[in-house]
Amino acid sequence: MIRAYKFLMRPTVRQTQALGEMLRDHCALYNGALQERRDAYRHASKTSVKYGQQSAQLKDIRGFDPERQGRWSFSSQQATLRRLDKAFAAFFRRVTSGETPGYPRFRGVSWFDTVEFPKDGDGVRWNSTPHGPITRVRFQSVGHVRVNQHRPVVGKVKTVSVKREGRQWFVVLTAEQTQPEQLPATGSVVGIDLGLAHFLTDSNGEHVPNPRHARRAATKLQAAQQALSRFPRRKAKDRTANHQRAVEKVAALHGKVRRQRLDHAHKTALDLVRAHAVIAHEDLKIRNMARSPAPKHDPDQEGVFLPNGAAAKAGLNRSIADAGWGVFLTILHAKAESAGREVIAVDPRNTSRRCPECGHTEKENRPTQEKFHCVACDHTAHADTVGAINVLRAGLVRRDANPA
Hints:
Helix content is 42%, strand content 20%.
């Protein structure tokens, strides 16, 4: 299996400048390749330019511009072109499936924050024998950069990426592990029900509170965004010092919320994986749940729309995004795979309306958000607990029907 590691780097002033130039030049390569594809399709009888053709031009590009393109790793530039090729592949996939296409866009320097090196030892070298908490990673044309390695890297390093977040720099490694370290067997099984009143409720009746990180930071974010809105929109190189500080403050607040959400997801998933051998959860279609309602045209008045609950749905969508269910489920599956646990996704339909005692399913069984009261057998319980119990039973049925 492949595991990722992310470490904070401590570059010097010159190394910070060189890393910024690396991102700038790879961004220029990305935008140039995108422009070539656009021009070829528009002006050359809808000709499609592929990755292989653009990769073959790299040697000439590096020779023509040795100061900006020639000094960086050839394989990292190929990875940047491959990144653009993946963006076009996703675009055509969305067109074919009838989704909103989203044509690949040009990237500004401030929006291009990652450069990937596909192989350790080709343009980058990770020091596998650190001395104390400080180790080093060497980048071509940058030098040896200090890294705060807060945990050991297990397995063989496959790829290395440099990532900029605000004013901080990180190195991201992917390592291949032949045999992950599995946790001791527990024999426990659990079903979980994700929600907004409680982030998570399990089939044992225990609740994990919803931290609502974005809502707690809303006041500070609103003030920072209002301060930023007073400045006219400019490119990064044309911003004043006050404008740049306002941009960085908004980015820092959003970054803090994102880190808090990730931390909560990691800790909650780890507690589940340590305690239970089998975890069943609802197979939520989060993108569909957070979709805005379609507008309702007034048949009697042209150009007039009827109320469609968009304001209330927008608030619900913000709460769904703030909960971070998708991130949590991704982390849960990754930790379970590493620990040798089993995670089962089940159909969420009627899980909170089906009585766990008699099996009667009806909308009236759930009179309120939290209360479950079966109209057939008078069974009463917390609605989220009932949902978690039904999720667990459906997961066990699915596991028995599809043995490993």
